[in-house]
Specification:
The protein is of the alpha/beta class. It contains 5 helices and 5 strands; from the N terminus they run E-H-E-H-E-H-E-H-E-H. It has a 5-stranded parallel sheet, sandwiched between helices.
Length: 153
Amino acid sequence: MTTVFITGATGYIGSAIARAFIAAGYTVKGLARSEAARERLLDSGVQPVSGSMADISLLRGEAAASDGVIHAAVSHGADSEALDKMSVEDMLAGLTGSGKPFIYSNGTLVYNDTRDRILDEDDPLDPIAPLRWRAEQESVVLDASAAGFVPSF
């Protein structure tokens, strides 16, 4: 059975992704940063992996052991940028050369205020200053495709 590892599987986007993968027959493992998150994952059919975005060896190991990774977690503290950069680096290291997919969930604020314009993924990013790092992270993930990653399931 195909296994996907999802960070943020208890969040709004991550939980929807987890439900879709479970419905499609995947085994889903999700990062659980608390006992409450662990219980929510169990209740939704996701196999919890206890840890945090700062657990380097855990993230690298789960990425290597899974058939693909979806990073939908976000930290809302002062360390959110550092944690995201570190966790992405760790998971990508676990996937290096594997050909396994890695999906990075980003937000629309990397496009700034689009007013009435309709955009797609080919439009240039123009993030608000505090989120400039998110656009840079997106570039890191896209550049990883040259290291043998497939950018979708």
